[in-house]
Specification:
globular, 67% helix
Length: 171
């Protein structure tokens, strides 16, 4: 209060929504450090949330199977996200969500419903209200009925083999 940097959370929720506020607070930095509120930062989180929702609702995620590269990227994301949460670094866990979204968008990826569920369950840590609504709308089930995803190391190793193959062949 003495520094004049008090922000009323009710006002922020009215403008951005509670999930965006939650993600911004988690993204501001490690929980043990003090942070300065910046309106520009919350605008960036809102753009990310909108991009995420647009990506998962684009209608391309009804396939039963997906490409190996997509599965590999999803399992790498699950591993990264879980490791960062285990280290109590929610800001870097959210950064892994952003990295995943950028990669999937560049690949114009199409996920299976199973993979979509895994991603939405992870997203629920950061944006529980939006994730719950997306699970109900896109998958026809309650978020509470979903299991916490685990990664499959063989998919992550498949990615390493693809990358190594590309390096060896010079592409």
């Amino acid at each position: 209060k003495s520094k004049g940097n008090v922000v009323n959370p009710d006002d922020i929720v009215q403008v951005y929504g509670s999930d965006v506020l939650r993600m911004y607070i988690l993204f501001m930095g490690p929980p043990e450090l003090d942070c300065q509120w910046q309106d520009e930062g919350i605008d960036g989180i809102k753009r990310f949330a909108q991009r995420f929702i647009t990506f998962v609702t684009n209608g391309n995620h009804t396939k039963d199977k997906e490409e190996v590269e997509v599965s590999s990227r999803i399992h790498s994301f699950i591993k990264d996200f879980q490791e960062r949460l285990d280290l109590f670094k929610p800001n870097t866990a959210l950064a892994s969500c952003m990295e995943w979204l950028n990669d999937m968008s560049k690949m114009n990826a199409h996920m299976s419903k199973d993979s979509l569920e895994k991603v939405l369950v992870l997203y629920s840590v950061m944006a529980p209200h939006a994730a719950s609504e997306l699970v109900e709308t896109l998958l026809g089930k309650d978020l509470a009925a979903c299991n916490w995803p685990t990664y499959n190391q063989s998919f992550i190793q498949a990615k390493a083999i693809i990358v190594a193959s590309a390096i060896v062949t010079g592409k």
